[in-house]
Amino acid sequence: MQIKLIDGFTAQCKAKGVERAISLFMLQEEPLEVNDFVVIHAGYAIQKITQQEAEAAWELYDLMLAEQQG
Known about the structure:
three-stranded antiparallel beta sheet; 1 helix; alpha+beta; elongated; single chain
């Protein structure tokens, strides 16, 4: 997801039209800024990634969903 707003250890993040409030607590040692991309698990940002890595991940997820749907 892409960070859209940071407020302390909480970030408003967005991906594919979905917005979520995400905890940044697990990445408190990582410098994070608005527009950074993060991997989310169970409501927590667990890893900072590049835009290219985020795009590649979404492409892979889209392929997996297409395959699953038929």
